[in-house]
Amino acid sequence: MTNGPLLITGANSLLARHAIRALRGTRPIRVVDVRFDGDAPDGVQTFTGDLRDLAFVQAICDGVGEVIHLAPLYTRLESDEATLDHATRGTFQLLDAAAKAGAKRVVLGSSLALFSRVPAQFRINEAWRPRPTPQLDDLCAWLAELGTREMVRSTQLSAVCLRFGRVVDDHAIASQPFDPLWLHVDDAVAAVQAALRKELDGWFIVHVPSADPRARFRFTRSSDEFDFAPQRSFEGYQAIRDVEPMASPTPIAPRQAIRKVVILGAGGPLAAAATRELRGSYTLRLTDIKPIEDLLATDKPQSPGAPMPELPEPPHEWQTVDVRDAAQVMAACAGMDAIINCTVLRNDPTDAFLVNTLGAYNVMRAAVAHGIQRVVHTGPFMLGAHDRTGYDWDYDIVDDVPPRPSKDWVYFMSKYFGQEICRIFAEFYGLVVPALTFCEFVNPTVRRGDHLHPLSVSWPDAARAIRCALEVPALPSPFEYFHIGADLPHGVFRNDKAKRLLHWQPRDTLEMHYTG
Known about the structure:
It contains 14 helices and 18 strands. With about 525 residues, it is α/β, with parallel strands linked by helices. The chain has 2 domains: about 5-210, Rossmann fold; about 260-515, 3-Layer(aba) Sandwich (Rossmann fold), CATH 3.40.50. Helix 4 (about 80-100) runs antiparallel to helix 11 (about 350-370) and helix 11 (about 350-370) packs parallel to helix 12. It has a 7-stranded parallel β-sheet, with helices on both faces. Strands 12-11-10-13-14-15-18 form a 7-stranded parallel β-sheet, with helices on both faces. Strands 7-8 form a two-stranded parallel sheet. It has helices at about 15-25, 55-60, 70-75, 80-100, 135-155, 170-175, 185-195, 270-280, 290-300, 325-335, 350-370, 410-430, 460-470, 495-500, and strands spanning about 5-10, 30-35, 45-50, 65-70, 105-110, 160-165, 165-170, 180-185, 205-210, 260-265, 285-290, 315-320, 340, 375-380, 435-440, 440, 455-460, 480-485. The protein starts with 5 loop residues before the first strand and ends in a 14-residue tail after the last helix. Helix 12 (about 410-430) links the parallel strand 14 and strand 15 (about 435-440).
């Protein structure tokens, strides 16, 4: 046990209430939720509040030693968007504050339902990659896992991720047929206690099913690895609920031809470059949070020579659309054949998640609702953290290495969540989602005084990459990740995947920026 109180989130849940009773008296406990049904637990410090409120999170984490984070499993707010924001931004803020307060351990509650799509005859263990669906419960659990894992990679925190079955007590399941996903709350609490005891340094996953021989999953950890084994079965329940693996829906079919394209975030320089590249070939619906007149009147180029948006002429049009607003995104995508998402917000701790994470969620839901198969997603490369968490020490870095967003910039973490949302939707619905990642954009005719980043590209070449992503007939998998960079001699980032799969070829060498 570490010094400092134990903080439990999602404390209004069945599991949390039982865990509080089991742990009360062993250490000081703080519990938090957005509400408490009935009386708050006795003998503990109780806080009612929202993990999206940074000041509130910093206050409840003051001096904390350990965290049991159950909120992504159980906290459900007034909308799907708010719930997902709570599970992603809330998790990031909570663990960042806990790490800064000196906490050393996190016990994260996750779900075995992340494997519901896997055939029942497969013997799943912790080495398998989960297959989350776009359903809210899956997204909350899975994205909280990814966020926690990356915080562990970037801080002194260690974490045990407990993937639970469906936690129940005797009262909840009375007179119901046996569900192979059931997990008795007593076993769930025992697993939490074991996670608090475990000596670890880093990230550790444990699957926690019931002891019933009819259970959908099996407990596979040895006693040397984890001091726990489920004890409770449900032998008194003879009728069995039929639980089939969740089947993917019929894939969304490609359009016979892509003619109408909506560009979200059209006020930014990347989208402005793409607009110039595409407007002679497609009918464009350009959207941004500001009217085009305001952008032209007030905005300056992002950097010397960066493209600026232009007033569209028919048949092209401009619409004011806030990507944070699901209804506005849904309306903007109506009647379109493809979507290009260039929206971005880098620094604001709140809006970065609302734009980069929830914005991606809104875009992918709109694509599915309107039967749009092609979505071109854009974002930053997430491989260059200047410490052991990233690949900054490496060379010949290929596109498909796992992202390493680190924790120090909300831009990266929020885009990381958004990118994963795109992947999940793409795989589940059979979409075609090329994700183009960039680091630095350069005007090839304007000499710079500083060093050129090893992943740099000219604005025109970036725009041509977007065209190639829009027009490529097919990709090997529904979601493909690409580095978009010039042919530079640095030898750090590879761009051959984009050349091979997108048939893209950078034209600007940018030689004037690294010679002389």
